[in-house]
Specification:
By secondary structure, the protein is of the alpha/beta class. The protein is built from 10 helices and 8 strands. The longest helix is centred in the first third of the chain and has 19 residues.
Length: about 280
């Protein structure tokens, strides 16, 4: 009976994956994407990706960058324009790749690694990125960061999802993992960002989050709050701003947060000595 239930569960999860996965690639031709600032759109392994470049510079050093997620259709949106403008004016590029509703799964992490190689090997980007996760973009960026601590200068989140069990829940996420809810539960600590913080703490990667205290979709306590608690226990450093009376919404204070911008600028420009790019 348990075998049958597992098979049924796997079929349901596969169906959920078909529903939840967005088409990151264009159906023939160049990918189409509207960005809050002028930028370039291209594909990596058939998935739409973007770069918003800073103004041209004469330097031959690699380009510092912010890695934004989720790059789903319609994202990044107009809400990000204020902070993206400040990043680019400071000489920092913004980039991202649409990996669909991958929820930090191994499939999504493989695409993230391909995107990282594309930007660092072919576009002259710096070897360390500052990850910026909005909502479920937190799952995507933090899951990849846990396995690539040497490539991460810092993480900043806007009400980021840090806990698969909290959002979207195992029944909704299992399809992206090709597992049943029960099997995903059994393997949760292998994938869940809040369970995989030790390596980031050892690498001294600083974290930042702004998260409202009445967020019911992505509750503060189970996500940014628990992230900070566990990260500090592991010896890491995290700054958490909690706007009173704010939930999971488009309040401008989330997207025009001076502290978040300052954190990103400081981390993106804090580069280790590196060889200049060959002309």
């Amino acid at each position: 009976m348990s075998c049958c239930l597992n098979r049924i569960g796997l079929l349901l999860c596969a169906a959920a994956l078909l529903v939840n996965t967005t088409a990151g690639s264009a159906a023939g031709g160049a990918p189409q994407k509207s960005l809050p600032l002028p930028g370039s759109v291209f594909t990596v392994r058939g998935h739409a990706a973007f770069i918003i470049h800073p103004p041209k510079s004469e330097t031959t050093r690699r380009i510092p960058w912010v890695w934004y997620a989720p790059t789903l259709p319609g994202l990044p949106g107009a809400e990000e324009k204020w902070m993206f403008d400040r990043f680019t004016r400071a000489g920092i590029a913004v980039a991202g790749i649409d990996v669909g509703e991958s929820y930090g799964s191994p499939d999504g992490r493989v695409l993230y690694s391909a995107f990282y190689r594309e930007l660092t090997l072919r576009h002259g980007f710096a070897p360390k990125a500052v990850l910026l996760g909005r909502s479920r973009g937190g799952l995507m960026t933090l899951a990849w960061a846990a396995e690539n601590t040497d490539k991460v200068a810092g993480f900043a989140g806007i009400y980021p999802v840090c806990n698969l069990a909290s959002y979207p829940g195992l029944a909704n996420a299992c399809g992206a993992y090709h597992l049943t809810p029960t099997l995903l539960s059994d393997q949760l600590t292998e994938h869940n960002p809040i369970d995989r913080l030790a390596a980031l703490a050892r690498a001294h990667v600083p974290l930042f989050s702004i998260h409202g205290d009445i967020d019911t979709l992505v509750p503060l306590e189970a996500n940014s709050g628990e992230l900070r608690r566990r990260y500090e226990l592991a010896g890491g450093r995290m700054q958490l701003i909690i706007p009173h009376g704010q939930g999971h919404n488009m309040w401008p204070g989330f997207f025009e947060c001076r502290e978040l911008v300052d954190f990103v600028l400081e981390r993106a420009k804090k580069r280790e000595p590196e060889l200049a790019l060959k002309k």
